[in-house]
TrEMBL record:
A matching Pfam family: NB-ARC
UniProt cross-references to CDD domains, sorted A to Z: RX-CC_like
Superkingdom of origin: Eukaryota
This protein's UniProt keywords: ATP-binding, Nucleotide-binding, Plant defense, Repeat
MF-aspect GO terms: ADP binding; ATP binding
Entry's Gene Ontology BP terms: defense response to other organism
Domain called Disease resistance N-terminal: residue spans: 6-99
The protein's name in its UniProt record: Disease resistance protein RGA3
Residues annotated as domain Disease resistance R13L4/SHOC-2-like LRR: 582-860
SUPFAM superfamilies: L domain-like, P-loop containing nucleoside triphosphate hydrolases
Residues annotated as domain Disease resistance protein winged helix: 439-509
Residue ranges of domain NB-ARC in the record: 178-351
Amino acid sequence: MAAALLSPILEQLTRIVAQEVQEEVNLVVGVKKQVDKLKSNLLAMHSVLEDADRKQVKDEAVRDWVDKLKDVCYDMDDVLDEWSSAILRWKMGDAEENTHSQQKIRCSFLGFPCFCFNQVVRRRDIALKIKEVCEKLDEIAKEKAMYGFELYRATDELQRITSTSLVDESIVSGRDDEREAVVSKLLGESRQEAWDVYAISLVGLGGIGKTTLAQLAFNDAEVTAHFEKKIWVCVSDPFDEVRIAKAILEQLEGRAPDLVELQSLLQRVSESIKGKRFLLVLDDVWTENHRQWEQLKPSLTGSAPGSRILVTTRKHSVATMMGTGHRINIEKLSDEICRSIFNHVAFQERSKDERERLTDIGDKIASKCKGLPLAAKVLGGLMQSKRTREEWERVLSSELWGLDEVDRDQVERGIFLPLLLSYYDLHYVVRRCFLYCAMFPKDYEMGKYELVKMWIAQGYLKETSGGDMELVGEQYFQVLAARSFFQDFETDEGEGMKFKMHDIVHDFAQYMTKNECLTVDVNTLREATVDTSIERVRHLSMMLSEETSFPKSIHKAKGLRSLLIDTRDPSLGAALPDLFKHLTCIRLLNLSGSSIKEIPNEVWKLIHLRHLNLAYCRELVSLPETMCDLCNLQSLDVTWCHCLKELPKAIGKLIKLRHLRIYASGVAFIPKGIERITCLRTLDVFTVCGGGENESKAANLRELKNLNHIGGSLNIQNLGGGKEDASDAAEAQLKNKKRLLRLLLDFNHNQDNGILIEALRPPSDLESLIIRGYGGLDLPNWMMTLTRLQVLTLRICENVEVLPPLGRLPNLESLLLISLKVRRLDGGFLGIEKDENASINEGEIARVTAFPKLKTLSFWHLKEVEEWDGIERRSVGEEDANTTSIPIMPQLQELRIMNCPLLRAVPDYVLAAPLQTLVIDVCPNLRKRYGKKGEDWQKISHIPNTSYCLKNS
């Protein structure tokens, strides 16, 4: 009876599922057609986008059209990403896009693929969205014809201003030192280059005064008397060899040449300068194409000794390409000098009363020039026409980019034009990367690696056959840095580089992005969220105080793709669920430094999320399992989250994850399944589970086997502390991680570590190695194969008595030995004694010099070392008939010896090295011997920086 009742139900369900399968197929086919149509329309407009991008700066209507196109492109990107995410989940065997819905109908028992009806309905919704985007794009494509767009040509009206050798010296200030330096280099003697002309380059930001400085030097009386011929050519872009050759020849001969072929022109130039001492200024050089320069260069040889070429450029790479023998980086002017330039222009033909009434505002306006003389001149020229105090205050409040309140053409051409020219010289994708930085507050310190990951999250960087997205991003960063869009660089191991943007550059970026990027703080919150079209914002930074509650008005920014929240407000955690519900298009979420205690389960709604930064969330205790439904997640950072003990156990589902940073967090182990994330580029810490309740959940070292893209730094912790053995370590195949540069092997002091450490052989290109807590007697044989190793630290290896011949490592620059059982440092340590048991081939590492590149040497807590025998007779200058001299530590600059109580002496060859710093502490024998009253004080008295205890002993 039951079977009879169930049979028709099963048949009906079978028909329903079959129908759904067919509808899915039809749906996919239909979407593909719509996507193809989208691509076709975009390609049709692509050829005019370059022209539109330039015209929008001056034409508000064009700007509105471009903004509409951007909005549709964002919408298209979102809906296609939503579709591809649904397909990805389907392929991964998760038929339910919303895995947390309770209304699921699974039909696998019928022999058909599993479908969730909600999933099918959602895919239909996506298809409808794609259709709507197609219709919007159709309308925008029709409007294109209204604006008469053309293919962009080099002769576009936004061309660079042609410079001349003339300059108004009455308004030049603050460049006396640079002027003297340039003139000195032009007049002074120098080593002649192979082609007989010494080149000098002036490099700096557009508007900084490079051309002005070159003009001053060009017109200097001594310079004029020194050179027989002076030639000034404004090169600009494109680099036209024929035009440049004609300009040179015209100034050499005093008339325009009648030649048109480049070869003929260059031949005539060569004849005209033969035997003459000339000065050639090539102003505003942009090309990095070495071939173009190589065509011109031979024609400039054959001149008299002392000839000079002076190059001005915004690109350091140009100066390098042209082989300039001396480079002068033009720095910003002081506020005082900027005020002087501004006042000279702004207060021309003004009465004394006007000056007194407006000087205080003028000083504030001039302070916004930020050291750029061009900005000071332009703003001064702008204020010449402003008579009332109200007009001056209005300009002051505009902050340069409020162009609706001032003479738009003057401001754009006077201040933004230098930046526009540099900006439009960039590849379109690099421009997008630069403009993205407008979302950060002024003076915000950015990290290079973090910024590149942000670019990747936004889809700006694409995988190429020639390298990873990260490498492409590195190239784009270098381009922007060379153009002076970034400044204040500081080396940072974690981020590679820390840097900022100049205020004027930041203003420019914000002007170009208008409402697309927005920064709000506690002072501008109301204005930004009420007066600004928050619905149009795509990238948002919020700097909120603890007293400021999280604004719900942000929920209106439905298309938001980047959100950076800087706040210590504890109520942020309670605001996150609603935030995730409304802002589902977010690709980047940065909550670093906040006081949140958990990420809510609703995070699964952020289906587009690529980058999640939770660094320094010191109160964060848990991450939800729902985070593992973020199939597009590329980067997760929980560094310094001390209270976070575990990662989500299903983290292996995040197959697109490229960067996982957990350094200094409380995470005790890596969950099983990490082996599935084969595109992983960053895994800074891998902790071997030491057994206990986590053992069944923890990944084994073997899971590192196929993660061969891991690069940068890797810290393997608790080695030997669990059930891991040498076979597990061997399966990890660290030697295949060719991108790995820095490795830390952290042992648990177990004496049975010898076989284990041999199995952990790293790639031969490793640059930094730290071995800590190693309990074995012998260091690994593979250590001496690391020919590119620059930094080596052996820390708390308390059973190691004999060191390998470390002096043979050809690139070692820093060596730190802490808490070893070593009793003697001899020729074996230096690598200058033959070791019959050495496994290394005779020619594998150069043995000409011991420690040839070592700069820093430190011994800490070597409490048993007594002798440091340097084999003095083999030192430089002490060879005899029976020995061969071997230089030892020829580049050593810093020596630190701490708490080595038994050590009696330091070899003379060490003290004869070019030491700049010597620190000896808690070493009674050495202090007595080398102190100021000691027998060997004279051997160290020449060292500039010696420790206090030696100077007073």
